[in-house]
C-alpha cells in the first residue's frame, strides 16, 4: 500500500512516471503505457501519455495513428474489463501485422486495463513485457495491476485537470473517516467492527455512505479518491494509532 500511495504524493510528472514504472516491475512487467483523455469526444492524439516503450515504436505508433488499429484500445472503449494480450487478440491481417511489429520492439505479452473516469475521462494503461504470453500468469497479476490502475488514474488527474477546491470535496463524518483509515491499512469490515466496538453491519453502512459521497462502487475506489483529494493521508492512521 505504501508503494501505491507514493503515486498520490508525486509532485511532478517525472517522479510520478518513475513510480508507476517501478510498481509495474514489481508485478513482472518492465514496460508501461499510460494514456488518458478528458472525454471520449477528445481526439486520442491529445491524450496525456506516459510510457517507457521504445521511442522508435512510440514514434511509429503516433505517426501512423496505430491506436485506430490497436485492438486493446477498441476493447477498452467498449468494456470495463481488462484484456490479456495473446496472438488471438490480434485477429485481422492488419492487427496481426501490428502485433508482429510490436513484438519486434520488445512488446510481446501484457494486459491492458481500461480507464473510465467519473467525469467522462477515458484511457488505457498497458503493462507489457517481451516474455512469451502466459494467460495464467496474467490472470494471477490482475488484482495487483488493477490497484495500480486505480491509483495511477486518481494520482494523474492533478497533471491533467485542476484539483477540486476544499469546499467541493465530500464531507465525511468522524466515524466515516475512522472507518476509512482502517480500510487504508487493509482491515476487513469484520476486523474494523472489532477495533471500533460496533457491528459489522454498522461498518458496512459507513462504508456505503462513503462510497455514495464519492460516487464510486467499491471501498478501494473511495479510498483512492479520499487520499487523492487530501481528505486522509497514510500519516493519519499512524497518528490515530499512537493516541
From TrEMBL:
Entries under SMART domains matching the protein: HTH_LUXR
CDD domains, per database record: LuxR_C_like
PROSITE patterns in the cross-refs: HTH_LUXR_1, HTH_LUXR_2
InterPro entries in alphabetical order: Sig_transdc_resp-reg_C-effctor, TF_LuxR_autoind-bd_dom, TF_LuxR_autoind-bd_dom_sf, Tscrpt_reg_LuxR_C, WH-like_DNA-bd_sf
Biological process annotations from GO: regulation of DNA-templated transcription
Superkingdom per UniProt: Bacteria
Domain HTH luxR-type: 165-230
One MF term in the entry's GO annotations: DNA binding
Keywords of this entry: DNA-binding, Transcription, Transcription regulation
Protein name as it appears in the record: HTH luxR-type domain-containing protein
UniProt lineage: Bacteria, Pseudomonadati, Pseudomonadota, Betaproteobacteria, Burkholderiales
Amino acid at each position: 500500500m505504501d508503494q501505491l500511495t507514493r503515486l498520490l504524493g508525486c509532485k511532478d510528472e517525472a517522479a510520478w512516471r518513475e513510480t508507476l514504472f517501478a510498481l509495474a516491475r514489481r508485478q513482472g512487467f518492465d514496460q508501461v503505457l499510460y494514456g488518458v483523455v478528458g472525454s471520449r469526444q477528445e481526439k486520442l492524439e491529445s491524450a496525456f501519455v506516459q510510457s517507457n516503450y521504445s521511442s522508435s515504436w512510440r514514434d511509429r505508433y503516433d505517426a501512423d495513428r496505430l491506436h485506430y488499429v490497436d485492438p486493446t484500445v477498441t476493447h477498452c472503449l467498449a468494456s470495463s474489463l481488462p484484456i490479456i494480450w495473446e496472438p488471438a487478440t490480434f485477429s485481422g491481417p492488419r492487427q496481426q501485422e501490428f502485433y508482429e511489429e510490436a513484438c519486434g520492439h520488445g512488446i510481446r505479452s501484457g494486459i491492458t486495463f481500461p480507464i473510465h473516469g467519473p467525469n467522462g475521462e477515458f484511457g488505457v494503461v498497458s503493462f507489457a513485457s517481451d516474455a512469451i504470453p502466459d494467460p495464467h500468469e496474467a490472470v494471477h497479476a490482475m488484482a495487483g495491476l488493477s490497484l495500480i490502475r486505480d491509483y495511477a488514474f486518481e494520482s494523474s488527474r492533478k497533471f491533467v485537470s485542476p484539483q477540486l477546491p476544499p469546499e467541493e470535496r465530500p464531507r465525511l463524518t468522524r466515524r466515516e473517516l475512522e472507518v476509512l483509515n482502517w480500510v487504508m491499512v487493509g482491515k476487513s469490515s469484520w476486523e474494523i467492527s472489532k477495533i471500533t466496538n460496533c457491528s459489522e453491519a454498522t461498518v458496512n453502512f459507513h462504508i456505503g455512505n462513503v462510497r455514495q459521497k464519492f460516487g464510486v462502487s467499491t471501498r478501494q475506489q473511495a479510498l483512492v479518491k479520499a487520499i487523492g483529494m487530501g481528505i486522509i493521508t497514510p500519516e493519519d492512521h499512524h497518528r490515530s494509532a499512537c493516541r
